[in-house]
TrEMBL record:
InterPro entries: NFX1_fam, Zinc_finger_PHD-type_CS, Znf_NFX1, Znf_RING. Belongs to the NFX1 family. PANTHER family: NF-X1-TYPE ZINC FINGER PROTEIN NFXL1, NUCLEAR TRANSCRIPTION FACTOR, X-BOX BINDING 1 NFX1. This is NF-X1-type zinc finger protein NFXL1. GO terms for cellular component: nucleus. One of its GO terms (molecular function) is DNA-binding transcription factor activity, RNA polymerase II-specific.
Length: 343
């Protein structure tokens, strides 16, 4: 319990209110902050909260959309929503409203067991009489093991659930190969920092990596002989089987119009039909006979406008037409034309 708070509460005047700067008497209705435990007159803190609400209401809803209306403790600035506006005078433990003045009790207390949950939460409640300030640590004792569990349990206060024995932790890390080398500690052990020789997924190369590093791939082509017995795998370093030969089964000619079921060692012949694939212009199709390799540029004639939009001309579809006209836009000075060729 805060000694200064208790000392002030035991006197006839429980200190001064930070809002009105007047003394807080035994008979005054008070409010206590849940964080700093400072006492205020109930009327003073109510007026303080209303003034804070009034100031926030002046903010522009356009600049501060959805602004939540809050009020704060005058001392520690702990913010409270308006639904926690202090309306009633409670004793310090919060069980009774308007506690009677009793010269045999601390001011503003009810004389009953506090009963608040102790912090940090341990499952027990405060057994002290209704009091100002924070609740004392849990007085109960338990047999508590250290964080790593390697030392015998010791009798500790309930609020101190874990302790460090000073030994090496020794718990198995997530890698399953190494143990924690830290001294007895709270929380997780963290990742393994050991460096090991780790092979790539195809097993051809190896290098030093962290124990928990993910599998890695080298830059070499696999090269394993495929099931056909004639071709090798062209995939870069990989795990698992290489798969079947990509040239096995039914294959089509380059233009895709005819199918052939031939051995993987033979090339598919062209079908002599028109290619018909879309050219890069996306407007015409390739008119060459079925062929291997790219179709090339479109050679059909089309009307194209020049860059400045003043003239048109019939050129090959893949070409850009640039006229010889000079730019007539005004320069930044506003007095002379550009006169440069558009191209």
């Amino acid at each position: 319990m805060d000694g200064e708070v208790l000392k002030a509460a035991m006197t006839s005047a429980g200190g001064s209110c930070l809002v009105c700067l007047s003394s807080i008497k035994r008979t005054d209705a008070v409010w206590s902050c849940s964080q700093c435990y400072c006492l205020f007159h109930l009327q003073c803190i109510q007026q303080w909260a209303r003034d804070g609400e009034r100031q926030l209401s002046l903010l522009s809803p356009e600049l501060f959309p959805g602004q939540e209306v809050l009020w704060s403790c005058p001392k520690c600035r702990l913010e409270h929503p308006m639904n926690l506006f202090p309306k009633t005078y409670f004793c310090f433990c919060g069980k009774h409203t308007d506690p009677p003045v009793d010269l045999w009790l601390l001011p503003h207390t009810c004389g009953e067991i506090c009963g608040k949950p102790l912090q940090p939460e341990c499952g027990h409640s405060c057994v002290s009489l209704c009091h100002p300030g924070p609740c004392p640590p849990c007085p109960k004792t338990l047999n508590v093991s250290c964080h790593c569990g390697r030392s015998p349990a010791m009798v500790k206060r309930c609020g101190v659930r874990g302790w460090m024995c000073g030994r090496v932790c020794g718990r198995e890390l997530d890698c399953g190969l190494h143990s924690c080398e830290q001294r007895c500690h709270d929380g997780q052990c963290g990742e393994c920092g050991e460096m090991i020789e780790q092979s790539c997924v195809c097993g051809r190369e190896s290098k030093q990596l962290g124990c928990t590093a993910p599998p890695w791939q080298c830059s070499q082509v696999c090269g394993e002989l495929l099931s056909c017995g004639c071709h090798s795998c062209q995939r870069v370093c990989h795990s698992g089987p290489c798969g079947g030969c990509p040239r096995s089964g039914t294959r089509t000619c380059p233009c895709g119009k005819t199918e052939h079921d031939i051995p993987c060692t033979e090339e598919v012949a062209t079908c002599k039909d028109t290619c018909g694939k879309d050219l890069l212009c996306s407007q015409h199709k390739c008119m060459r006979p079925c062929h291997y390799g790219p179709c090339g540029q479109c050679l059909q004639m089309a009307v194209r406008g020049c860059r400045c939009g003043k003239k048109e001309k019939q050129v090959t579809c893949s070409s850009e037409y640039l006229c010889e006209a000079k730019c007539s836009r005004m320069r930044q000075c506003g007095r002379h034309q550009c006169r440069r060729k558009v191209r």
